[in-house]
Amino acid sequence: MRMSAGSWFFAVVAVLVTAGLFWAGDRITLQNERTIFTANCQGGTWQGAHCTGKLVAGPRYRFRALRPHGEVLFWTVGSAEPSGRLAPCAITDGWACQPCPDAERTITLEMSSGHPVVGLNIGLTMPFHAVSKLRWWLLRAGLRLGNDAAN
Question: Each residue of 140-150: pLDDT tens digit?
Answer without folding.
Answer: 999 988 899 88
